[in-house]
Amino acid sequence: MSGTFTKSMARNIFYGGSVFFFLLFLALTFDTQSSSPKRDNRGAINESVAHGKKLWETNDCIGCHTLLGEGAYFAPELGNVYKRRGPDFIKAWIKAQPTGAPGRRQMPHFNFSDKDLDDLTAFFKYVSEIQTSNWPPNIQG
């Protein structure tokens, strides 16, 4: 290789790199498109899950909690809370808030009905069944 870097060499590196990364982009896009249907759990959304999601949104739960990595980091990740704790614990925990423990962050009391709590736990069950490629990385969220 000569000691000088010519315009022709720079052009070849640019075009070669562009083609390489374009082909890499296409391969990764194809991989994502082929694996996405396997991760989808369509059809599992019913009226109860939809109402639970609406409760999640209207009460701004994401303002404190994360759900599958999205949201605030003030309170625990809830993407796998259904698997970790189960529906009875979730309902009892929400009903018992705020606990009044000094020095701890407190969740407000939401005055949810039993149906609201059932719907919210149905939403958490739905979220826990999403194929997330092992996210969150540990069981505690």
From TrEMBL:
Keyword Heme tagged: yes
Chain ranges of the Cytochrome c domain: 47-128
Sequence intervals crossing the membrane: 12-30
Record keywords, A-Z: Heme, Iron, Membrane, Metal-binding, Transmembrane, Transmembrane helix
Gene Ontology molecular functions: electron transfer activity; heme binding; metal ion binding
Protein name in UniProt: Cytochrome c
